[in-house]
Amino acid sequence: MSAVAEFEDVGKVYPTGLLGRGGRLAVEHVSLRINQGEVFALLGPNRAGKTTLVKILLSLCRPTAGRSLRFGRPVGERQTLARVGYVHENPAFPRYLSATALLEFYGALALLTESNARSRTAQLLEVVGLADRGHEPIARFSKGMVQRLALAQALLNDPELLVLDEPSEGLDLAGRRLVRDVIAERRKRGFTVLLVSHVLGEVEQVCDRLGVLVGGHLVKSGAVAELARDPKTGARCPLEQALERLYAQPGERGACA
Q1: What fold characterizes domain 3-85+157-256?
Q2: What is the mean pLDDT of residues 215-229?
Q3: What angle do CA 8, 10, 13 make, to 5 degrees?
Q4: How far apart, in Å, are the Cα atoms of 117 and each of 3, 103, 151, 157, 241?
Q5: For 99-191, where are the E strands, in sequence order?
Q6: Which end of the chain is more exposed for a tag (fewer CB within 10 A), N or C?
Q7: Quick one: which of 167, 153, 163, 157 has its CA closest to 59?
Q8: H or E element at residue 214
Q9: pLDDT in tens, 180-212
Q10: Dist CA 109 CA 81 (whole Å)
Q11: How many CB atoms lie within 10 A of CB 160?
Q12: Domain ranges in the chain?
């Protein structure tokens, strides 16, 4: 099975202090493989390094150690970004644009033909439940509606890798079901999804494997059913209980000289 994303002994230090002479360790010695056709969840407490790994994968920042690959190529080769879709946890769109204008604009950025961009826009607005609001300015949209629009934007190029950072934030029950349906559709087509979420019920329902980051270190990875077991007895336990044990492990990030 081919890897869609690989992290090999990856580390990242953000410069701090006067002239960047200090440093804050974000992730250290992370090795992780995400395979084609699977739904992989990245879990961890706040400031565990999840967003940093996503940024490295999306070429939004460079690792300071190790090697990162996207579709088998170094993440610095941006050509493979055309095969990726991304939903940010706090999407920010020009509020004066309508949903239709926004999606057609992003369609042009994705090098879709004008007719294809219009077709995909109409189709995706229907999928995310915004077909009747397509010509309204985004300024009138609720947080949940903006989140739905962000999902539509991420799907414009029919990506082989869909990265979802807290995609259910601000969504109602129907919106959360929409996210699950989109994830299931991507998996059915043999595509890959990387999910960052604190909604454990969602993770258990849709994910094949997960990785747990604590203090910038990968402390556990494996199948969801495997991680949701008591390490002493082997009996099945709630995923929340298993994560509480992992989150309590040492590994706090600190300053670097």
Answers
A1: Rossmann fold (3.40.50)
A2: 89
A3: 170
A4: 29, 8, 16, 9, 45
A5: 161-165
A6: C
A7: 163
A8: strand 209-214
A9: 999 999 999 999 999 999 888 889 999 999 999
A10: 12
A11: 19
A12: 3-85+157-256
